[in-house]
Amino acid sequence: MGKQATEMLKGVLEGIVLALLAHAPTYGYQITASLRDQGFSDIAEGTVYALLVRVEQRGLVDVEKVPSGKGPPRKVYSLNAQGRDYLDEFWRTWSFLTERLDQLREGGG
Q1: How far apart, in whole angstroms, are the C-alpha atoms of residue 96 and residue 91?
Q2: Hey, what domains does the chain have and what are their CATH numbers?
């Protein structure tokens, strides 16, 4: 992924992670693996974990510690009502931006 794509991704990664959590509760490593499976191969685990700490502190997710077969319990994140509202706003903003960018690309700026 090029520098420009990496910078753009930083701006929307929170929304992407919340969208993943909207589908099913999961833990940090699985989120990173899902992102990589979808082509976001340059995302470091540390970036995802730092983002999860931020969304937890902002009250967008609920966290449950679940026993792990290997090592310490896993923190499983699930999107709560406040997180769903935030994600809805993210999608509205995303739609607005993509519509405007499409207009600019088509010469309607």
Answers
A1: 9
A2: 3-105 (1.10.10.10)
**Which of the two residues, 7 and 14, has the higher pLDDT score?**
14
Token pair for 38 = 């979808």
- CA-closest candidate to residue 5, choices 31, 29, 30, 39: 39
* Helices of type H across the chain: 3-23, 28-37, 45-57, 81-105
2 pLDDT above the threshold of 80: no
What number of residues does the chain have?
Answer: 109
pLDDT tens digits along 26-40: 999 999 999 999 988
Return the closest-CA partner of residue 20 out of 59, 51, 42.
51
Strand (E) or helix (H) holding 76 = strand 74-79
User: How far is Cα 102 from Cα 109, in angstroms, rounded to an integer?
Assistant: 9
pLDDT digit string, tens, across residues 83-107 = 999 999 999 999 999 999 999 999 8
